[in-house]
């Protein structure tokens, strides 16, 4: 293979085409996951939501092995980190202005 000069050569347009295909793939997966997040009244897309998209849509069945590694939230019986953080954000009151910043000139 090392003697063959054609190995490793790629047409100039290939990276552009592959990049665009990857962009379109990610838009499709994340958009569907965002729909699930909206249905659950969540502001964040979690790994669990991505897993749900992969399991329900046959188009992404090639990702099933990877998605199987994501733990099931219901089986664990605990909240995910993202959900607990989003609830904490709702409870946080507005911050008080701290000391610091510019000081006014005294005339």
From TrEMBL:
One GO cellular component, as annotated: negative cofactor 2 complex
Compositional bias annotation for Basic residues: 96-107
Gene3D superfamilies the UniProt entry points to: Histone, subunit A (1.10.20.10)
Major localization class: nucleus
Biased composition (Basic and acidic residues): 71-84
SUPFAM superfamilies linked to this entry: Histone-fold (SSF47113)
Keywords annotated in UniProt: Nucleus
Name of the molecule in the record: DNA polymerase epsilon subunit C
């Amino acid at each position: 293979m090392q003697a063959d000069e054609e190995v490793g050569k790629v047409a100039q347009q290939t990276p552009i085409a592959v990049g665009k295909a990857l962009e379109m793939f990610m838009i499709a997966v994340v958009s569907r996951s965002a729909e699930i997040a909206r249905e659950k009244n969540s502001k964040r897309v979690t790994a669990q939501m991505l897993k749900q998209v992969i399991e329900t849509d046959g188009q992404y069945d090639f990702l099933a092995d990877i998605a199987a590694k994501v733990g099931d939230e219901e089986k664990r019986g605990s909240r995910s980190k993202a959900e607990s953080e989003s609830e904490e954000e709702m409870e946080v009151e507005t911050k008080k202005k701290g000391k610091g910043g510019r000081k006014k000139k005294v005339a």
